[in-house]
Amino acid sequence: MPTKPVFLTQFLIEEMREHGEQMPDLRLLIEVVTRACKRISIAIGKGALGGVLGEAGTGNIQGEAQKKLDVLSNDILMEANEWGGHLAALASEEMDEAVMIPEQFPKGGYLLLFDPLDGSSNIDVNISVGTIFSVLRAPRRPTGPLEESFLQAGTQQVCAGYALYGPSTQLVLTIGTGVHVFTLDRELGSFVLTQRDLRIPADTQEFSINASNARHWEAPVKRYIDECLAGKDGPRGKDFNMRWVASMVSDVHRILTRGGVFMYPLDAKTKAQGGKLRLMYEANPMSMLIEQAGGAASTGRERILAIKPGKLHQRVPVIMGSKNEVERVASYHAGG
Ligand SMILES: O=P(O)(O)OC[C@H]1O[C@](O)(COP(=O)(O)O)[C@@H](O)[C@@H]1O
Ligand SMILES: [Mg+2]
Ligand SMILES: [Mg+2]
């Protein structure tokens, strides 16, 4: 890595210059979102001292009880972005409807979607959580209801990223030119480039799934996991390790860093709602990062980024990570 620190803004200017198109509004949007993530990182770092742990006493459109930090992170991101300039509208896991930038503020050409706090079940037990975001272009002449503007396939994303609030706070980002990692220098209060162009190995010996759902899994997933568990004496001829943090950000970060396959497949419990994880602000941004790093992302039956969304809070099955493993799971779904 360069000896002289490369800060996020500088990196974005150089990256956009190198790829032939300066997008000052997109750069501004990324700076505003990452500044909000710094504020969330500080709030999380205070933990019990900051009074941010525990239930908020309210629920969201997903039917989940909100944690105080779900609400606080959402408020911080709303406040940071609502003055507009770079956005036309935004949508969040924690808000029923998409929100247009208020009349009195200038409008920008982008739409922002976010999961303000991912891994909520881990907040009160001090395990890493994160913020996931996705950026789309706003239609020039939107016709129907605001929500329709957002219903674009994941291939239309111009930017995707997450902040990981762990022992260190990291930002992992793509603007369609590879996946790059920044680490928050707490003294400087700035994100500094620490890894360029992450590449996911095509093969792996590590899978990530909530095994307590095994009895609900479909046959292709059961077969895949059973073969992994059979290890070197089984059809795969090699031993597999398992990891499950139950924060998608942490599990996907591990996979972007050293490979693996992350699975939250369709099962009997989630079939009626189409899956557990949300397409627009969990599966799509993570799929763009995974594919940009040379991996694959599927529902088991189709490429996640190719899905034409039907509604803002749509859920989908998720199988992503090392290319050859994801393709193997998909081939089992196809009867292979
Ligand atoms: O509780 P489970 O079944 O292990 O599910 C964990 C999954 O749910 C999530 O926490 C859902 O995300 P939110 O915390 O943003 O609702 C994912 O981060 C994680 O992968
Ligand atoms: Mg989430
Ligand atoms: Mg969340």
UniProtKB/TrEMBL annotation:
<dbReference type="InterPro" id="IPR044015">
    <property type="entry name" value="FBPase_C_dom"/>
</dbReference>
<dbReference type="GO" id="GO:0042132">
    <property type="term" value="F:fructose 1,6-bisphosphate 1-phosphatase activity"/>
</dbReference>
<keyword id="KW-0378">Hydrolase</keyword>
<comment type="similarity">
    <text>Belongs to the FBPase class 1 family.</text>
</comment>
<dbReference type="InterPro" id="IPR028343">
    <property type="entry name" value="FBPtase"/>
</dbReference>
<protein>
    <recommendedName>
        <fullName>Fructose-1,6-bisphosphatase class 1</fullName>
        <ecNumber>3.1.3.11</ecNumber>
    </recommendedName>
</protein>
<keyword id="KW-0460">Magnesium</keyword>
<keyword id="KW-0479">Metal-binding</keyword>
<feature type="binding site">
    <location>
        <begin position="118"/>
        <end position="121"/>
    </location>
    <ligand>
        <name>substrate</name>
    </ligand>
</feature>
<feature type="binding site">
    <location>
        <position position="115"/>
    </location>
    <ligand>
        <name>Mg(2+) 1</name>
    </ligand>
</feature>
<keyword id="KW-0119">Carbohydrate metabolism</keyword>
<dbReference type="Pfam" id="PF00316">
    <property type="entry name" value="FBPase"/>
</dbReference>
<feature type="binding site">
    <location>
        <position position="276"/>
    </location>
    <ligand>
        <name>substrate</name>
    </ligand>
</feature>
<feature type="binding site">
    <location>
        <position position="93"/>
    </location>
    <ligand>
        <name>Mg(2+) 1</name>
    </ligand>
</feature>
<comment type="pathway">
    <text>Carbohydrate biosynthesis.</text>
</comment>
<dbReference type="GO" id="GO:0006000">
    <property type="term" value="P:fructose metabolic process"/>
</dbReference>
<dbReference type="GO" id="GO:0000287">
    <property type="term" value="F:magnesium ion binding"/>
</dbReference>
<feature type="binding site">
    <location>
        <position position="118"/>
    </location>
    <ligand>
        <name>Mg(2+) 2</name>
    </ligand>
</feature>
<keyword id="KW-0963">Cytoplasm</keyword>
<dbReference type="GO" id="GO:0030388">
    <property type="term" value="P:fructose 1,6-bisphosphate metabolic process"/>
</dbReference>
<feature type="binding site">
    <location>
        <position position="210"/>
    </location>
    <ligand>
        <name>substrate</name>
    </ligand>
</feature>
<dbReference type="InterPro" id="IPR000146">
    <property type="entry name" value="FBPase_class-1"/>
</dbReference>
<feature type="binding site">
    <location>
        <position position="117"/>
    </location>
    <ligand>
        <name>Mg(2+) 1</name>
    </ligand>
</feature>
<comment type="subunit">
    <text>Homotetramer.</text>
</comment>
<feature type="domain" description="Fructose-1-6-bisphosphatase class I N-terminal">
    <location>
        <begin position="8"/>
        <end position="195"/>
    </location>
</feature>
<feature type="domain" description="Fructose-1-6-bisphosphatase class 1 C-terminal">
    <location>
        <begin position="200"/>
        <end position="333"/>
    </location>
</feature>
<dbReference type="GO" id="GO:0005986">
    <property type="term" value="P:sucrose biosynthetic process"/>
</dbReference>
<dbReference type="GO" id="GO:0006094">
    <property type="term" value="P:gluconeogenesis"/>
</dbReference>
<dbReference type="Pfam" id="PF18913">
    <property type="entry name" value="FBPase_C"/>
</dbReference>
<dbReference type="GO" id="GO:0006002">
    <property type="term" value="P:fructose 6-phosphate metabolic process"/>
</dbReference>
<dbReference type="GO" id="GO:0005829">
    <property type="term" value="C:cytosol"/>
</dbReference>
<feature type="binding site">
    <location>
        <position position="115"/>
    </location>
    <ligand>
        <name>Mg(2+) 2</name>
    </ligand>
</feature>
<feature type="binding site">
    <location>
        <position position="282"/>
    </location>
    <ligand>
        <name>Mg(2+) 2</name>
    </ligand>
</feature>
<dbReference type="InterPro" id="IPR033391">
    <property type="entry name" value="FBPase_N"/>
</dbReference>
